[in-house]
Amino acid sequence: MSDAILGQILNQLQQMDKRFDTVDQRLDQVDKRLDQVDKRFDQVDKRFDQVDNRLDRMDERLDSFDKRLNVIEEQTKNIPLLQQAVLETLDITKRLEASQITFERKVTSELNTHQHSIDILNRRQLRMEADIESLKSR
Which of 44, 65, 103, 110 has its CA 20 to 30 A from that of 31? Predict the structure, then answer.
């Protein structure tokens, strides 16, 4: 899967996360306003007009929430595709890990073989140097 697609997926998830945060904040605001409405109903009858005005504004906000929720529902339709992409990425990652382990074993084996060859050559060189020294000293 290309980095661009993963970037788009991440971007969409981040946008959805921001939208959910906004919905949560707005819902908290609605809860606070409902508490205020309950207190005002317990007060004087004169305030009923003010409460009605506030309820009208809350209706407008709820309409706005409905629109936003519709957008969120539309965007969440892609979640199965995102899940499939994540599973495919996981599969690719597992295959890459297996290939890496095989490659590491091969490289380690070759390094060991080369190290053994170097050790043999070092021993031969030491013997030759010793032989040359003994020939020089004769």
Answer: 44
Stated pTM of the model: 0.36
Residue 65 shares a structural domain with residue 114: no
* Same domain as 58, residue 14: yes
pLDDT tens-digit profile of 11-66? Answer: 998 999 899 889 999 999 999 998 887 777 666 566 677 778 889 999 999 999 99
Both tokens assigned to 14: 């981040």
Boundaries of domain holding 4:
1-77
Give domain status of residue 133, yes or no: yes
What token pair was written down for 65?
Answer: 């929430």
Angle at which helices 3-42 and 79-137 cross, to 10°: 130
Q: Is residue 11 part of a domain?
A: yes
Burial 30-62, CB ≥16 within 10 A → b, else e: eeeeeeeeeeeeeeeeeeeeeeeebeeebeeee
d(CA 82, CA 104): 32
